[in-house]
Amino acid sequence: MKPSSPGTALTRRRFIGGVIALGGLMGVSLAFRKKLMARLSSWTELESFRATPRLVPHDSSVERRVLHIARGGAPSDNIDSVISKLGGMGTVVGQDDVVLIKVSAQWWNQGMTNVAAVKRVIEHVLEVPGFRGEVVVFENTHFRLPSGSGLSRAFTHPSERNVDVAGWNKLGDLIPYFEAKKSPVGFVGLVDGGPSLLAHDHWHDAGREHGMYGGDGRGPIAPGEVRDGYYWDFGHAFAKRRSWVERVKAPLTWPVFFSPRSGLMIDLKYGVFTREGNRRIKVDRKITFINMTTCNEHASTGLTCCCKSAMGIVDMSAGRMGSHPLARDYRSVHYFGSPGASWRMAGPLAQFAREVRAPDLYITVAEWVAITPTKDWNSETADIRLAKESAFHVNTVVAGADPVAIDWWCAKKLVMPLPGARNHLYDLNDPGSMLTKFLRYYREVNQKGTMDDSLIEVT
Tell me, what's the pLDDT at 35? Predict the structure, then answer.
């Protein structure tokens, strides 16, 4: 029996039994203690943990948003259109900037960012008048190749759709193209710091030719250590009371990596540095961050689009399913609300945007939208991010600075009208839908974001 509201008493017998179980934790193994604690936490879970967050009232004086939309053209043409509506890439990118472009590459086909769109965005950056900076395209697929490279999965796996460049079939084809042009463009595959209990799953890649799940084994960057990798900040862990006995928490994590072109050290939170021995020297270079996302149904959040996209930046080994000793009492972002409130991952994702870095520009490339189709579907053998039957061609690009507003618009205008078998997950007319809960909670933690049609202007 769960309490009907926070603070409501349990049945006397169950509570006393739980206290006895808790008292006996001292004399049993760690694994058994964790199982007992998980059960007691489930018995005493607060109803508020699963409840739909309230919609914080909008302030029309500060929450009006402009979204730039292009529909019906080829991906590169749609990119040209939205960049033109922005006033040109020069309104976002400075001449000397280090431009970070985050793509989605953990999955291929409709699960990845359209290749032609990424190519055209890079070209727009390089075409900024007087540009003398550099571009770094990056992603954490949470997989690594046998060589140790994180440029795995969609960078190496051929795709049947969502490429749209003649003679190309994968995201990795961007690499030799810009190398041949001697362009200041580099590619970085981030790799988690710790090992994972999920490492041996085949992840729709039976031979694991395109990457093995898990980190590089070095763990988080230690205080005073100067290298690439991940910081795990336990002092700023995102926490939420789940039950009478459990306060779930996820450490704040962010990457440090080197530009393949200039060798500059990029700390996503603190900026650009050079490395001299065991010292980091701050460089006066501005980071401009562009996030290029997909737009697909997701079982845990209702939609994977802008707000969820930081899942491809954070370290997924820093908590549950990660087996590094420091992660023992924490949950990774993906499992923060599990079981029963997976949408709660919006909390640590919004914290990342507030405390590490938020993109200067989001570009959602909804060339193909992935949803569970209403017929001819076997979820045991197929995956909506990969299968032809789950791919719906909507050839739309949306650009803007507010991830909540983009997710809101894309869900309403692109995803909800499609014939989906699980449209209850992303129905924004339903306060109890997964996506409604996810966006409300993200907005609550991020303290901004628009979920109001009357405040969203489309150009």
Answer: 77
In the prediction, which pLDDT does 378 show? 85
> How confident is the model at residue 405, as a pLDDT?
98
Distance CA 229, CA 251 (A): 15
Helix locations, 357-402, DSSP H: none
Q: What is the dihedral of CA 200, 202, 208, 212, to 10 degrees?
A: -50
* Element housing 236 (H / E): strand 229-241
The pLDDT score that the predictor gives to residue 210 is 97
Domain carrying residue 354? 62-458
Q: Is 178 exposed, middle or buried (0-12, 13-18, 19+ CB in 10 A)?
A: buried
First to last CA, the chain: 51
| Closest to 96 (Cα-Cα) out of 25, 184, 26, 174 | 184
> Total domain count for the chain?
2
Backbone phi and psi for residue 394, each to the nearest 5 degrees, phi listed first = -120, -5
Six-digit token string for 207: 């031979």
Quick one: 121 and 215 in the same domain? yes
Q: In the prediction, which pLDDT does 120 show?
A: 98
pTM assigned to the model: 0.93
Q: What single letter denotes the amino acid at residue 375?
A: K
**Residues 14 and 144 reside in one and the same domain:** no
Residue 7: per-residue pLDDT: 43
81 closest CA partner among 94, 93, 68: 68
| Helix (H), strand (E) at residue 272 | strand 271-276
Handedness of CA 262, 264, 269, 271 (dihedral sign): negative
Give me 17's structure tokens.
């039994």
Low-confidence ranges of the chain (pLDDT < 70): 1-32
> What's the distance, CA 230 to chain centroid?
16
Question: What one-letter code names the amino acid at 103?
Answer: V
CA-only gyration radius of the chain, Å: 22
Question: Of 426, 450, 237, 446, which is closest to residue 346 (Cα–Cα)?
Answer: 446
Q: Contact, 285 vs 74, CB < 8 A?
A: no
The span from the CA of 8 to the CA of 2, in Å, is 9
What's the CA angle centered on 208, arms 207 and 212, to 5 degrees?
160
Residues 37 and 124 in one domain: no
Nearest to 117 by CA among 260, 291, 259, 286: 291
For residue 364, the surrounding DSSP H or E stretch is: strand 361-370
* Inside any domain, residue 72: yes
The alpha carbon of 69 is separated from its chain's Cα centroid by a whole number of angstroms, namely 22
What is the C-alpha separation between 53 and 299, in angstroms, rounded?
Answer: 19
Answer yes or no: are the C-beta atoms of 139 and 103 closer than 8 Å: yes
φ, ψ at 441 (rounded to 5°): -70, -40
